[in-house]
Design goal:
Two copies of one chain form a homodimer. Chain A is mostly helical. Helices cover 55% and strands 11% of the residues of chain A. In chain A, strands 1-3-2 form a three-stranded antiparallel beta sheet. In chain A, strand 2 and strand 3 form a beta hairpin. The C terminus of chain A is likely disordered. At the A-B interface, helix 1, helix 2, strand 1, strand 3 and helix 5 of A face helix 1, helix 2, strand 2 and helix 5 of B. The structure holds a DNA duplex.
DNA sequence: CCGATATTTAACTCATACGTTAAATGAGAG
DNA sequence: CTCTCATTTAACGTATGAGTTAAATATCGG
């Protein structure tokens, strides 16, 4: 629904491949050409070219022509949306966990007060795997 | 190469889908059942079930049986590897950009000194090769 | 045990991802 | 112009992803 959904899709999808992550890490030490970028990998040049296309489509890198080469570099702010989402995720993750802790405390309180009606924390834990 | 590559693959891949991201956000407000989780979406229950399987395989959620339901919750620390990678990416991204700025400054300096041979800002200057 | 409810598995379709090799493009050098 | 190098595009095979409907499984409540 949010208009940024596609952007996030592309960014995370681009990051979900070890070759592409390695390419990004390599670009951290400065812009370089496709051939140089491809060198450490065992796959064909067209394969690398496609990975670069994916990264470019995800706005994570830029390629600009320079003589017969194409200079690849990290796209400034290209990681922003993904970073922002992850930062939000980090907060709600920890928040959720602290809520859970709180809830467990309440449960404990409640059961100490002796109201024994329905104190199921993990209801009916019986033997799972009954043979058919 | 790193043994964590697959873990990151799965995490980012899991995050690369808006339905799954929405599910995670929903889980931020506390554990819930599959059915409840599926309710806001337009897709079938089996589809949701598969999304949950993907999230579980990526260690982002946990599902534990509870009566005839399965209670889904965020997996504590499940986001850790992805968060760590992203934090590293954030640093090397900005580092790389500040290096770029530095480099542009040097270029400018150089051209101010009047050495008019080949003062193209975008050519020359390859192979900086500062091992990071 | 039976029937209802929650969820998953099976079997299938369609689209996209990732790799290959071979051919095409674009720019510099002779 | 022609040769060569860097890179992409084309065409293809195969695997995986995301969705569907129908059937299976598991657990509770009577």
């Amino acid at each position: 629904m949010t208009p940024s959904a596609e952007i996030l899709d592309r960014a995370f999808s681009a990051l979900a491949d070890p070759t592409r992550r390695a390419i990004l890490e390599r670009l951290a030490s400065g812009p370089t050409t496709v051939g140089e970028l491809a060198e450490p990998f065992d796959i064909s040049l067209p394969a690398i070219s496609k990975h670069l296309a994916v990264l470019e489509r995800a706005r994570l890198i830029r390629r600009e022509p320079e003589a017969q080469w194409r200079r690849c570099s990290l796209h400034p702010d290209g990681l922003r949306p993904a970073l922002d989402w992850m930062d939000r995720a980090r907060s709600f993750w920890t928040e959720s966990l602290s809520n859970l802790a709180e809830y467990l405390n309440e449960e404990q309180e409640e059961s100490r007060h002796g109201s024994s009606r329905n104190t199921r924390k993990k209801a009916g834990r019986r033997s799972k795997k009954r043979g058919v």
